[in-house]
Amino acid sequence: MHASLRRHARKMVHILDQCSKSRANLASMATALGYHAEIYSDLTELKSQRPQEGVIILRDLTFAGQPTEMMERLVDQGIWLPVIFIGDEPSLAQIVDGIKAGALDYLAFPVEADRLGDCLARVSAEATRFTIANRKMVEARERIGRLTLRERQVLHLVTQGNGNKAVALSLTISPRTVEIHRANAMTKLQAHNAVDAIRICLEAKQPVLV
Hints:
Layout lengths: L2 H7 L1 E6 L3 H13 L2 E6 L2 H7 L5 E5 L7 H10 L6 E6 L3 H10 L3 E5 L3 H33 L3 H11 L4 H8 L3 H15 L4 H11 L6
Parallel strand pairs: 1-2, 1-3, 3-4, 4-5
Helix pairs in contact: 4-5, 6-10, 7-9, 8-9
């Protein structure tokens, strides 16, 4: 089989770790488990490749900051793949923060081969669903980001189940003005109705008013 075909037939792992020794060890372990491993020393290298398939293994010492910040930086770069964090003796609080931020697992370093294999198998099985959901999240946030503050306010109240008159009363504007802002918001969101708008807001996974 041609080398490029063999590469695409195997599942991908993208290892982000600033330590060259542990990066090489993780890559060797992943390869032995049947994965094609790509290695990166920092986010700039990962961003330049913009991987569209596979799983990211991210050692948390690669970034300064909290897991939420790390995940947001990946999303901001258009990288939507599922993430496994690896940390040196991570505390329970770190693990909880990592999972809440969107990582699918948080392993302690050094990682045993069996533990990594089980984790990769489970996360790889969820990769397609996760990537689609993350892509929808990014697209929803981009659409909501096009709205003016007033359009966001109207959208927030509409998605809470309020009619135009109730929205007008809450914002101290006329029902006609509400209709205009609501129509503009629907157009920018590419929503056909309030149900579509609610779906988009849920997909964004963040408050409309931020």
